[in-house]
Write a structure and sequence with these properties.
The complex is a heterodimer of chains A (123) and B (794).
Chain A: E1 3-7, H1 11-23, E2 27-31, H2 34-43, E3 48-52, H3 60-69, E4 78-82, H4 89-96, E5 100-103, H5 111-118
Parallel strand pairs in A: 1-2, 1-3, 3-4, 4-5
Chain B: E1 2-4, E2 9-10, E3 14-16, E4 22-23, H1 25-37, E5 41-43, H2 49-57, E6 63-68, H3 71-74, E7 77-79, E8 84-93, E9 109-113, H4 117-125, E10 130-134, H5 137-145, E11 151-155, H6 156-166, E12 171-188, H7 192-203, H8 207-218, H9 226-239, H10 245-294, E13 298-303, E14 306-310, H11 312-318, H12 322-325, H13 336-347, E15 354-359, E16 365-377, E17 380-389, H14 391-413, E18 417-421, E19 427-430, H15 432-438, H16 457-473, E20 480-485, E21 491-503, E22 506-515, H17 517-584, H18 593-623, E23 628-629, E24 631-635, H19 636-654, E25 657-661, E26 667-671, H20 672-688, E27 694-701, E28 705-711, H21 746-756, E29 761-767, E30 771-779, E31 791-792
Parallel strand pairs in B: 1-5, 9-10, 9-11, 25-27
Antiparallel strand pairs in B: 2-3, 3-4, 6-12, 7-12, 8-11, 8-12, 13-14, 13-17, 15-16, 16-17, 18-19, 18-22, 20-21, 21-22, 23-31, 24-26, 27-28, 28-30, 29-30
Helix pairs in contact in B: 1-7, 6-9, 8-10, 9-10, 17-18, 18-21, 19-20, 20-21
The chains are: A alpha/beta (123), B alpha+beta (794).
Amino acid sequence: MKTALVIEDNEDNMELITFILEENGFRTLRAETGRKGIDLALHARPDFILLDIQLPDIAGPEVLRRIRASATAARIPVIAVTSHAMAGDREKLLAAGCDGYIEKPIDPTSIIAQIRRFIGEDP
Amino acid sequence: MIRVAPAPNYPPIEFFDETGAYKGVTADFLAIIEKKLGVRFQVVRLKDWAQVLEETKRGEADIWGEAAKTPERAEYMLFTTPYIRFPSVILTRKEGRENLTLDSLSGLKVVAIAGYATHDYLVENHPDVELITVPDIETGLKMVSFGVADVIVAGAAPASFYIEKNVLANLVMAGESGYTWELAIASRKDWPELNMILQKALDAIKPEERQAIFRKWLDLGHGASIAGKSLWFSILAGAGVGGLVILAILVWNLSLRKLATQRTRELNAELDERKRAEEALAKSEERLARFFEASYEGLFFHDQGRILDVNAATTEIFGYPAQELIGRNLLEFVTPESQDDVRRRMQAREEGPYEIGVVKKDGSTIPVEVHAKTLEHKGQAMRVVALQDISERRRAEQALQESEERYRLLVELSPDAITVLGADYKVLFANPATAKLLGAPDPGALIGKPFFEWVHPDDRAGAAQRIEQMTREKTQLPPREYRFLRFDGTEIFGAVTSTPFTYDGKAAIQAIARDITEHKRAEAALQKAHHELESKVAERTRELREANEKLLELDRLKSLFIASMSHELRTPLNAIIGFTGVILQGMSGELNARQQDQLGRVYASARHLLALITEVIDISKIEAGRVDVFPETFMLEDVLAEAVSNVQDALGRKGLSLEVHVPSGLRLYTDRKRLLQCILNYLSNAVKYSEHGTIIVAVRDTGDEVEVVVRDTGIGIAEDALPRLFQPFERIESPLRITNPGAGLGLYLCKKIATEMLEGAVSVESRPEVGSTFRLRLRKNLPPKEAGAARQRP
């Protein structure tokens, strides 16, 4: 059973994503702030991370940068979750080292397939 | 004492000589009578015969030594029997007239001597002749000789005397008047005894004494001329009456013989003298002739009007060759207006200069200036005349006059004030416009006054300085404005141009002034308007700047609004869609059919709302120029595949088929996401509005651009609705509208993206009930994005 770290400040979204993941057999770790997300990423060693780009304390790309800069979590796949398309987000995130990119609203029928593809687990 | 009044100038009959002594035939007769009677006559010398008659009538004289008896004289004088007889003859110039009688003189200018019997006779019997009355015979003879008169009727004896004396060689006897002078001694009628005594004394004079007297006075010696000769014949003929014929013939023969011997002697001496003189003369004449010919002035000689010689310049002036001039009378070449003038001046021997009109051979008339001089040549009067054609001078004078007139008119009529200032700036001249400018009653009111009286005190020093400078440098300075004070005290502005020049030989200033008060007023008004406009513009600029700042603030707020809308609206909607999706999937437990259907409606509505919000935000961003273009390299076939996959479910549900024709490996460099958005929009519309048939997606490569064509077999669009298709919030009425919700922003957004982000265009063709074809044209390769900066619409 793989563990997903979900970094998301919106409670509804957190509930939705963790529900879908758990329903599909993943273990979930929850972080409501960027700081806590980084902390968990470095110490809890999740198998992959779902990172909301718009966070209240540390912006998503910065969180990603710190994770990638760390010795322990640098190789953990990170999938960015973003509200619709602030233009250029996709490019910025991929350039910053994201492994994948999921757009809100989350589609429960396709999200798990997308995640599996990004973390290298063929569905 | 008995007073005798002789005719003072009636030689050889009676006259006073140079010493004032009383001489002549009659004088000698009276001397004999004095002796015979033992009395002495007192001689009263009077001016002329007319005065003799007058004084006698007044009782100032008692006796006339000789006089012809006339009825008029017989009223106050008694006459003895005649003792001198000679004919009255008609004399004229050589040219032409012959066999004249008193009855053939009509129309001619006839000279007669005042108070003489012939004069009275002509007045009485020939009123048709033009009678010229002269005081004595000598004057009369000269007048005829000089061409002033045509004929003279005079006694043969005195006439011959004067002809000899004056060498009037051109006079001839042209006929006899038929009147014979019969001269007798006359005495006062109120003293009849005197007449009787005189008659007796006269009768007592012996024939020998009479012959001696006549011989003495009628023998004129060597001077006798041809004219004289013919007169002598007539005198002889006249003398024949009363037994004097023999006497006269005797006298004639005597004089002729004497003349012959004397002339021979004189001629010999003269010949020697002439030879010497001629040699000297030849040289002198040659020089003179050269000078004469070479002169630029017209020179010619004439004798009593008859042209003797002319030089080349004269032929040019008259326009006739020399041979057509010489021998003719100069009056023939003078204009009718000048005729009398020329005659008079010729007679008076005027030297000029005077102007006459000359008629040239070609008939034209020219003004000629004449200088003339009378030369005595071999005792003959000859005139030398210098001519100058003054047409050019006249023309120049006229041109000058016209030019002056033009200038005067210009100055008089000029709307500009023209003023001439002399020393101390006193007005020498002012035209009417000057008076008008200054409000003077007339220009005369300005003359002589210092001009600065009407210049504003503040401007006087400047004006004076300028005038000084101009006078010193002799240049003209550019126009300058001055204030003038008019007669009524008002102030006006004048633009003044002045020039130093010479007026009446003295340095002066000509000033031309124009009233520019109105102009200045208008200028000031314009200036004011200009200032007002400028301040208005400044005001408006300030307002605009403020408005602009407000707009910028609004724009900033709008951007903020868009950004927050994007986030704040989506977040709850994402939760709704997410959870509804999870529930619909049955992940939260089984749903019954009704729940499934109703929740499906919530889900669809939420999706639609999200799409709507997304479109509104996209359009807002594009319109605000706040959307960035992110070009990347990709394969067109991949984008089409992604779009198709999005509508795959819908196609299946509706039973529509789809064909995609796209060249493989077509690589683009543009905004992938926006292109996908457009294609998806076209494709979903095609699916939405088609109930059957095949949707075709085709790609055409046109070099720099590609065209994506989406063709459906749907309901189509009415032609009149086509133009509105790409407008915002336009949804075409159709039966499918209800079942296909939408805000009507999709195609508008496509058009915005195509034109403003992809450098392309959209278009549509459609036929109702047949289907529509939507096209999207775009540039294959957008310009590379600048490093670090997002591409932004200007």
